[in-house]
Design goal:
Helix content is 13%, strand content 34%. The protein starts with 5 loop residues before the first strand and ends in a 9-residue tail after the last strand. It is globular, with a radius of gyration of 16 Å. By secondary structure, the protein is mainly β.
Length: 186
């Protein structure tokens, strides 16, 4: 994947800039229709863009925490530790025209990988972009698990470096809506 090219998401309804080397997981296995999932070629890092139903019953920082806890429940997290929740400046977003509220949460859910008993702290960064005119919460998640000793998918010197917060921020700020029909009739 080109480092500065916007990559189409959800059939071209959105696009965003992904870090170099991002692999579209839908080329490897089925992914739910409301998700776009990308993995790093060498690490266990992943980036997920989700279109979720607007959770109008929670507002502000509580909405970011709600989605963090919901993801934690789905992943079977034993412990959910929120490290920070900060508002995102809407002016920095390509979606600023339709996003009315945005938050970034950093936390550490404790998750055991498939077929493993020992849970590990995973660093998780989530950006919640609230788009009430389309009854949608857009959730962008950066999973940054601790490194393990598995072999890389390719020669070490050809693999891109691990992703960082700058890569996550570029994805979040570049996320662009091209076709609002993805949300159905309004």
């Amino acid at each position: 994947m080109e480092p500065t090219r916007a990559y189409p998401l959800f059939g071209g309804a959105f696009s965003a800039v992904f870090p170099r080397g991002a692999i579209d997981v839908s080329d490897l296995r089925p992914v739910p229709d409301n998700q776009e999932v990308f993995c790093h070629p060498r690490t266990d890092q992943s980036l997920i863009v989700e279109l979720l139903e607007l959770q109008a019953h929670v507002q502000g920082e509580a909405a970011a925490r709600y989605h963090f806890e919901d993801v934690g429940r789905v992943q079977g997290s034993r412990v959910l530790q929120v490290e920070s929740v900060q508002p995102l400046n809407l002016e920095t977003l390509a979606l600023r025209g339709c996003c009315q509220e945005a938050w970034v949460l950093s936390g550490k859910p404790q998750v055991a990988k498939e077929n493993q008993q020992v849970a590990k702290d995973v660093t998780l960064h989530q950006a919640l972009l609230r788009v009430p005119q389309y009854q949608t919460d857009l959730l962008v998640t950066f999973n940054h698990p601790p490194p393990d000793n598995r072999s890389s998918l390719g020669p070490e010197n050809l693999s891109p470096p691990s992703w960082n917060l700058g890569d996550f921020q570029q994805l979040v700020t570049s996320l662009t809506l091209h076709d609002p029909n993805i949300f159905g009739p309004q």
